């Protein structure tokens, strides 16, 4: 009887600290999120984190339509600020990382031309995330316009729904593509070498990609969501973001 009561007590205790949280995550973080969750679970082993990936614009639309997300990690500040202004987010948007753009090719290419390569006659198709919904796509368009090659390149553009899909298109359907630099730090992308398969886009050509995080209203007083939120802004998380090519505040 004592053993049975002890088992029930342990079960109840574990249940109090165990739970699921649902987070909406910008596609560019897809290469980093597993490492972040693994590190978080070292100190919060009973919290299961369910991740939905997508473009920030589409995730925001889902949130506004009642999707049951508890926390949103956006690829820019625009969308979480809109959610905060609409009182759908209960925390003011905070920058958790700063992303950057790169140009990738599955084949070996001379990247000496940098972004100017996109208008070259040898390049017929250029992958890009949809600039209407994906902040990295918007940044890529801005970079091309500032480099004064957009008008010569726009007809070549192949639009992906998200920045992660832009990587897929780049590797399977186009000669080059604008991608999140962070994607190049995943193990499956390690075969692609800087200067041979990819190069950075000059940071001066586009507005810094400040990525914002907010807790959503259905997570009010949810200690597990707050714990994950605090972790994402912690030094341990910053170290992981740096390892994946991000800048951190």
In percent, how helical is the residue content?
Answer: 25-40%
What's the CATH topology name of the largest domain? D-Maltodextrin-Binding Protein, domain 2
Distance between the termini: 55 Å
Rounded radius of gyration (Å): 20 Å
How would you characterize the largest beta sheet? Answer: 5 strands, mixed
Q: Any idea of the CATH class of the largest domain?
A: Alpha Beta
**The named CATH superfamily of the largest domain:** Periplasmic binding protein-like II
For the record, the count of structural domains works out to 2
Order of helices and strands: HEHEHEHEEEHHEHEEEHH
Q: What class do helices, strands and sheet pairing give?
A: alpha/beta
Mean pLDDT: 91
Strand arrangement across the biggest beta sheet: 2-1-3-10-4
The helix tally amounts to: 9
Low-pLDDT parts are 1-17
What does the overall shape look like? Answer: globular
CATH architecture of the largest domain: 3-Layer(aba) Sandwich
Number of strands: 10
Share of residues in strands: 15-25%
Task: Describe the structure concisely for a colleague.
By secondary structure, the protein is of the alpha/beta class. It has nine helices and ten strands. The chain is globular, with a radius of gyration of 20 Å.
Note down, in words, how this protein is organized.
The chain has 249 residues and is α/β, with parallel strands linked by helices. It folds into two domains: 131 residues, Periplasmic binding protein-like II (D-Maltodextrin-Binding Protein, domain 2); 107 residues, D-Maltodextrin-Binding Protein, domain 2. The chain contains nine helices and ten strands. Strands 2-1-3-10-4 form a five-stranded mixed β-sheet, with helices on both faces. A five-stranded mixed β-sheet has the order 7-6-8-5-9. The protein is globular.
């Amino acid at each position: 009887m004592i053993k049975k009561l002890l088992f029930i007590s342990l079960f109840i205790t574990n249940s109090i600290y165990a739970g699921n949280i649902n987070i909406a995550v910008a596609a560019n973080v897809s290469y980093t999120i597993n490492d972040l969750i693994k590190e978080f679970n070292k100190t919060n082993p009973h919290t299961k984190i369910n991740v939905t990936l997508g473009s920030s614009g589409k995730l925001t639309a889902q949130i506004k339509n009642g999707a049951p997300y508890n926390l949103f990690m956006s690829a820019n500040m625009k969308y979480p600020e809109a959610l905060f202004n609409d009182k759908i987010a209960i925390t003011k948007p905070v920058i958790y990382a700063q992303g950057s753009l790169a140009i990738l090719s599955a084949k070996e290419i001379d990247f000496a031309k940098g972004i100017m390569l996109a208008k070259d006659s040898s390049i017929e198709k250029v992958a890009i995330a949809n600039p209407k919904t994906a902040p990295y796509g918007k940044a890529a368009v801005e970079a091309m316009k500032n480099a004064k090659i957009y008008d010569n390149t726009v007809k070549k553009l192949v639009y992906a729904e998200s920045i992660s899909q832009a990587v897929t298109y780049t590797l399977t359907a186009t000669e080059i593509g604008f991608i999140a630099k962070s994607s190049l730090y995943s193990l499956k992308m390690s075969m692609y070498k800087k200067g041979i398969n990819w190069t950075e886009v000059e940071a001066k050509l586009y507005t810094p990609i400040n990525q914002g995080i907010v807790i959503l209203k259905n997570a009010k007083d949810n200690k597990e969501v707050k714990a994950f939120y605090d972790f994402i802004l912690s030094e341990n998380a910053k170290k992981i973001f740096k390892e994946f090519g991000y800048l951190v505040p």
